[in-house]
Amino acid sequence: MPMTPTSEAPATYRLIDGKQTAEDIKVEIAAEVVQRKAAGQKPPHLAAILVGHDGGSETYVRNKVLACERVGFESTLLRYEDTITEAELLAKVDELNQDEQIDGFIVQLPLPKHIDPNKVIEAIRPEKDVDGFHPMNIGRMVAGLPALLPATPSGIVELLRRYELVTDGKHCVVIGRSNIVGTPVSILLAKNLEPGNCTVTLCHSRTQNLAEITRTADILVAAIGRPGFVTADMVSPGAVVIDVGTTRVEDATKKAGWALRGDVSFEDVAPKASYITPVPGGVGPMTIAMLLLNTLRAAKGEIYPR
Ligand code: NAP
Q1: Superfamily of domain covering 40-125
Q2: pTM over 0.90
Q3: I need a surface site. Which of 40, 91, 130, 145 has the fewest CB within 10 A?
Q4: Going by DSSP bridges, is the β-strand pair 258-261/247-250 parallel, antiparallel, or unpaired?
């Protein structure tokens, strides 16, 4: 994809436009769905389970359902009160596992405290696990086998690919080691793949001399959940900065009373970076696009032949 400077971007750095890239991917998916329908195949069908009424989760799930409509998928939203028991939820998961009309499904996290998310994730059939969180998909990813990859890490890799950023031999520093972002992105970028072949350092809350390490990064990925944590003194000139953080902070200028803030102190860091993702409009939209792509792959039986 050509690298198009936007009006918000001074000459010194370029914004990595995740919103536009996600739109491009959705157009590609929609075209494939049209082709499949013309060939007499049913559209991919994504289901989402939402437990309780967490504001963030409601928004994420609503956006996922809307995205399905945009690309011609069918979608089903199953809502349960947070009084649902673990056994009841596991039974719902099993119903979706057995339902031949459903190609893939997600259980929106976080779940209420009385439900073990790992038990729920492990109950999902790997071929329908379009979030890519099941140990089978994680294990296949680590082994370099085809897998349904976790959406946020694969969205980051896809951004690097589409912006044609060189990763081979580069030092990538990832801050944050969660199972859904930090750890998998560190694995993907270390693989002998294109993009990939990075030398990766994975940092976390026990890391000593964090700023010393981040200053050696050619590519810096921040997935911490602490608004504005990464400041200019932690970034080397010319680094590619990927901000995964999305924390709601109070903002009286917004109608909702809050705004999303990334883990990177954008105004401070951007002038030092060569490329940087904004928040919002960077990694976030890519996560949904990659979820749709996983659902299409599941429908096609691309990873686990049906
Ligand atoms: P998480 O599970 O809370 O993990 C946070 C990680 O940051 C942990 O590994 C933690 O280290 C590390 N950390 C915390 N404080 C630190 C510090 N002072 N120095 C170094 N490391 C520190 O978070 P997550 O689920 O990965 O999410 C991270 C952020 O990304 C959140 O803002 C989340 O909302 C956002 N997110 C965005 C998307 C998207 O689509 N854009 C998707 C997923 C997540 P320890 O392991 O040592 O505790």
Answers
A1: Leucine Dehydrogenase, chain A, domain 1 (3.40.50.10860)
A2: yes
A3: 40
A4: antiparallel
